[in-house]
Structure formats: C-alpha cells, structure tokens
Write a structure and sequence with these properties.
Shape of chain B: globular
Number of strands of chain B: 17
Largest sheet of chain B: 6 strands, mixed
Helix content of chain A: 25-40%
Shape of chain A: globular
Order of helices and strands of chain B: EEHEEHEEHEEHEEEEHEEHEEHHHEH
Order of helices and strands of chain A: EEEHH
Oligomer: heterodimer
Largest interface: A-B, 15 and 16 residues
Chain lengths: 64, 289
C-alpha cells in the first residue's frame, strides 16, 4: 500500500495477482477509517467495498 | 544471409537477414552503431532474424518473418515493412525479457542531466514531440521505453530510431531535412511508418544515465494551443502504471520504484498543437527543478 503524500489517494499492489488498484480517497480519512477512529461516509464506504471486493481489504471477523 | 549487430546500449542485438532493405536501413539509421562482422561485439544480448517467408507466396506477395531466439512472436508482414518489423521486434524483445529495469512505455528526453518521461498511448503525438525536442537541445534517451533503475530513479538510455507515423513523417522531414530516415512502410497496422535516425549527440551519450525529475503526459489536440494541467499524484500514478510493461515480472520492486518516482517528480498533462510552446515550457520547468 502506498498513500500519496499530496493526500490525493492510496494505491495498492496485490502481490499475488500483480493487480494495482488506486483509490481516490483522502489518505488521512482512509487511515482513520481503518483505525476505527472515524466512520466512513457513503462515498468512502464505496471505495472500501471496492477494495474488499478486490481482496485488498478483508473484513474483520467481528464484522462478518 | 547477412549478419550484423546493432550496438544500442545497453543491449547488443545480432541480426541475421536475407532482406537487403533491412541492412540498408539499419546502416543508414544507426551509422557507427551498425557493426559488421569485423567489429562484432563478443557479448550479444539477443539473437534476432528477419527473413523472407518460404514457399510460392514469395513470388507474388513477399512477406517477412521476425524471430527472436527461434521464437516467432508476430505473424509475417509484407516485405516493405521489414525494417519497421525489426524495430518493433527489438521493442518486444526487450519488453519481454528485461528484468534489470522497470520498463515504462514512454519517450525519455533529458536536459542538463535531468530527464522527463512522456508516457502516452498511440496517437498522442509523443513521437513527433520527441523528434522535435531531440533536435532542439534535448538529449534523446528513448522514443519508446524508459528503462528505470529500481529504487534509484535514474533512467538508462536505450537510444533508438524515432518511429514516425502518417502526417508526422512529412512534417519531420520538413523540420529536419538533413537527418536520415528509413524507407516508409506503407499501410502498416499503425498507418504509414518511417523511422528517424537519433541525433549523433544522443548516440554519443548513450551510456550516460539521467535522473528522472518529471513525468508529462502529452496529448496532441489541434484545437488547443497549449493547455497545461498539474496532476495530483494518485491520478498521475494510475496513468503511469497503465504504461508499465513489466510490473508483473518485477512485482513489488516495480511498484515501489514507480510510487517513489511519482512522489519525487513534477507531474503534468499537456494538450497542445504547438511543439515550440511545449519546448519553452519544459525548458523553463526543468531549469527551475
């Protein structure tokens, strides 16, 4: 994972299938959502769902 | 069958051919980097061949076949496209086999040791812009692929002929009538194609790396004089990654190199119809970097 320094997004590299996924999500907000210190709005949730669909993020067992 | 070598640093190609126009064009374009048997380098990176296809077809509509180490990646093409096929074959060979560098489909030009990458799809005017810059104070490192040293962000020259298409062939011949051009291959899958010889200065500096300071995505648009947009890093990275040849071979090494490059370079998308204005902008921008 690489969060861009200008806060324009985060890019992910899947080392298994070599897929690159770039999400235009505010980097700080994204990290806060992952930490659980902030709730995702609808737009951010859509980004996160995409990352889950692509296998980049995995839902924690508590959420399943 | 004739044998010759092209010493296009960092790679040496040895080519066998029975097609006279391949030898004539290679000699015209690569000058002192075209080596005959007495000057052959001992160490050859790739053995290629370009030969007429056999059979009765040769008598009516002759075709040529390209092979790299006895593999035949392309279907045969009409014989008048033989030199273009060699150029495309050399690109294919390096893109598929090179592991030492991160390879991006991009032109690379440098000034004062500072390089700008121009990744772009066909039709964006990349080669015409490259031809212009390479003959207006910029050093050509490549028209087709950027060879980036992993983690170091230096680009290694791979100085080759510039591939001109359709209207840009006559345009460049008007701009630079004294340069050498290959024979035009008509009606290829890219339209009419001719190759322009790299400048003597670019060939002479073919072993000098340059540091990447910028990435510019060019878009030729005849209705726009010059529009320049500064890109955010995520957007630039996405376009950049779409032009990567070997991320799948290099894995994390390629990804980390590309993100580091995007973090450290200036990033623009330009829409233009005037190459002089583009040159002026880039010269000013690179001077201030």
């Amino acid at each position: 994972m690489h969060p861009f320094s200008d806060n324009s997004g985060v890019t992910f590299f899947n080392t298994v299938n070599m897929d690159i996924t770039t999400s235009f999500i505010d980097t700080d907000a994204f990290m806060a959502i992952l930490d659980g210190t902030r709730l995702a709005d609808d737009d951010q949730m859509q980004h996160i769902e995409t990352l889950i669909d692509k296998g980049i993020l995995t839902k924690a067992k508590d959420d399943l | 069958m004739q044998e010759f070598q092209l010493n296009t640093s960092p790679f040496v190609f040895q080519i066998s051919t029975n097609v006279p126009m391949v030898v004539e064009n290679a000699k015209r374009i690569y000058k002192s980097h075209f080596l005959t048997e007495k000057d052959f380098r001992a160490s050859v990176d790739y053995h290629l061949s370009l030969t007429y296809t056999g059979g009765i077809r040769r008598l009516t509509k002759s075709q040529v076949t390209f092979k790299c180490d006895d593999r035949e990646p392309f279907k045969p093409l009409p014989a008048n496209q033989a030199f273009a096929m060699l150029e495309w074959g050399m690109n294919w060979t390096v893109a598929l086999h090179e592991f030492q560098h991160v390879i991006i489909h991009s032109a690379v030009l440098a000034k004062d040791g500072k390089a700008i990458l121009f990744p772009a799809p066909p039709g964006s005017g990349k080669s015409t812009l490259t031809a212009y810059l390479a003959n207006h104070g910029w050093r050509l490192l490549s028209d087709e692929m950027a060879l980036i040293t992993p983690y170091e962000l230096n680009v290694t020259p791979f100085v080759r002929a510039i591939c001109l298409k359709n209207a840009s062939i006559n345009l460049c011949k008007q701009w630079f009538p004294d340069l050498a051009y290959s024979d035009t291959a008509f009606a290829t899958h890219k339209g009419d194609v001719a190759h322009m010889a790299p400048s003597d200065n670019s060939l002479a500096c073919a072993r000098e790396q340059a540091r990447v300071v910028g990435v510019v995505f060019p878009n030729y648009d005849k209705s726009l004089f010059l529009d320049i947009y500064e890109l955010d890093k995520a957007n630039a990275f996405m376009q950049f990654a779409n032009n990567a040849f070997n991320f799948n071979l290099l894995g994390t090494l390629g990804f980390d190199t590309a993100t580091a490059l995007i973090e450290n370079a200036f990033l623009y998308e330009i829409h233009y119809n005037n190459v002089e204005e583009v040159e002026r902008f880039l010269s000013e921008r690179i001077t201030n970097t």
